[in-house]
Specification:
This protein has 121 residues and is of the alpha+beta class. The protein has helices at 19-24, 39-44, 53-64, 71-85; strands spanning 2-13, 26-36, 91-99, 109-117. Strands 1-2-3-4 form a 4-stranded antiparallel β-sheet.
Amino acid sequence: MDKIALEGMEFFAYHGFYEEEQKIGNKYGVDLEVETDFGAAAQGDTLNDTVNYESLYKITKEVMEEPVKLLEHIAGKIIAKVLDTHASAQTVQVVVRKYNPPIGGVCYASKITMERKRDAV
């Protein structure tokens, strides 16, 4: 299986469990990896034969613009939209980071990783 990825996408968003997080916002990072088959694109050189990374960015951006409480919910929504939008996507992995999370101490980032296969969704 072949893979396409967007690494290090950055967003300022208003996610968080605490009301204050939803008001002041925070910086987030997202990595997205999709397993698919590049066979047709490698032969035909046609964008319609692959997973367009511009589309992946648009999906991620749209999800990041909708405030939610949990990083897991963000990842789940991205995965669902990628699988709904790209029929050739077989597996989607999303990493979501919240920089400087409110934990009462020094922490560069909190991070979750979620992966789902098309047949398991």
